[in-house]
Design a protein that fits this description.
This protein has about 250 residues and is an all-alpha fold. It has helices spanning about 15-35, 45-50, 55-70, 90-110, 115-130, 135-155, 155-175, 185-200, 205-225, and strands spanning about 70-75, 80. The protein is globular, with a radius of gyration of 24 Å.
Length: about 250
Amino acid sequence: MKPKTPKPPPTDPQPRKKRGALMVYEKLRDDIQWMRIAPGSALDEVALAQAYEVSRTPIREALLLLVNEGFVQFLQNRTTIVAPLSMHNQNAFLDTFILLSRGLIRATTMHGPVDRDALAPYLDDYSEGLAENDVERAFRAQLGLFRHLTELAKNRFLAKYFLEAQDASVRMKLLYFFPHLSADDIATARIKLEAVIDAVAAGDPEAGDRAVSDVILFETQVIQRGIEPRFGHQMTLESPGTGGTS
């Protein structure tokens, strides 16, 4: 008896639709995260469909994914906006981020020393980006370093939550950290990130714990300094003649 020829697997009935939604999601997420679209901006589905050359269905699917991640909000009047950046609960977020960062570095260093030459290019790009006021280059280098460390940690659960927290920090740091770095701060930022690399290269969990905590605490100090009042409390608001004597 002649064997039957196996049937080919069924094809996806809507492959272009799935690829379209994923493409829109990734590009729109990147634009929102890197502040190319400002917080609070309205997102028009028709305009987005034209910009990405897709139908409105992939746009809606991408927006739903972004809503689930907190990057987009649906308002009651059916308007869709980029989620505003709020400082509400930032202390709780930073506590969580520090704990996840410490856990990541400990998990990485517990696998033993790492070749420093593999980590040095991240530090070079970070330093050169800061020196040239190329914020995106500097920040992407820092993000890339920690993504590389998540691979070395070999803990997919820790990696998942750390990377989510790291992504959640991007807009805050673009608004409140990098714009407020002084020349001294730039030098300090490099030194503190280098301390993380040195600890990982040495396979030293205690030094890594201290170093990554110092990075985040330093960034927090710059952010706090960046949002404090500059001159309003020092201005004289008395009307002319009210402060003198006749």
